[in-house]
Amino acid sequence: MTETAYPKTQPLESPLYGLEARRVSAWFGKHKVLERVTLDMPPGSVTALIGPSGCGKSTFLRILNRMHEMIPGAQLSGEVLLAGQDIYHASQRPQHVRSRIGMVFQKPNPFPTMSIYDNVLSGLRLAGIKVRDKDSLVESCLRRAGLWDEVRSRLSTPGGALSGGQQQRLCIARSLAVSPDVLLMDEPCSALDPTSTRRVEETIAEISSQVTIVIVTHNMQQAQRVSHYCAFFLAGAGEPGGIVESGTTEQLFGDPHDPRTADYVHGRF
Ligand code: ADP
Ligand code: MG
């Protein structure tokens, strides 16, 4: 893998919505796993969450779209604001929140026997969205996910027949179909080979002007290539996880303020 950074869209002038986590703590039963996490994820930017396994990155991601509450025994405190509104406010329906804040997982999970075409459209009914021109929506989502040229002649092929990397881009296309404000990605390239990883990174760079992205990655080069902002999570032995340091990606990698961040980004633990 080269160190070349992708051209990053400037986040500042975007009309998109960002996410803000304020003092978020989380428990599984009596086990506290996150301690007062506060993080700003600005509109139209890519924020990378980095840190060792078990420090609460996936839990934090699930809290950002109300998937955490689906786990038995899971609790949380704090606020998550989308466009300034708390997604946990009584007036917010979890289903609606999850359609505005999509999730892409480590293991690509298209519906394996469903056609590529129907896979792209599969989230719409759940989100209560009706579309007049399905063909053009499918094409635009597959184009944005960088998959159109590879699949345009075989849209009725089952999603499960694609390669792992193509399946992951299909999952991104499916997420984009509901026009989310935010896309959460939990180690989206961990199961992919370097070429497929590169294609997914290109897709992230491409869509980051249209959707706010939060990505968990263990790949430090990837964090530097795709993200504008970065947050370093850490958990002491038997302690809940939290953010040691967050800032621009340039600052976190080039001039980390905390020695633990410096050790982590330089691969010293
Ligand atoms: P990371 O993604 O950084 O590896 P996780 O968010 O998966 O970390 O896990 C944080 C902590 O929460 C770990 O101690 C893990 O064992 C615990 N945990 C995660 N999921 C569950 C669950 N469903 N039930 C109980 N404990 C969990
Ligand atoms: Mg994880």
Automatic annotation (TrEMBL):
Which key words are in the record? ATP-binding, Nucleotide-binding, Translocase, Transport
Give the Gene Ontology MF terms in alphabetical order.
Answer: ATP binding; ATP hydrolysis activity; phosphate transmembrane transporter activity
Offer a single GO CC term for the protein. membrane
Q: Could you tell me which residue ranges the ABC transporter domain spans?
A: 19-265
| GO BP terms, alphabetized | phosphate ion transmembrane transport
Mind telling me which CDD domains this protein's record contains?
A: ABC_PstB_phosphate_transporter (cd03260)
Q: Show the coiled coil region(s).
A: none
Q: What is this protein called?
A: Phosphate ABC transporter ATP-binding protein
Record the organism: Trebonia kvetii
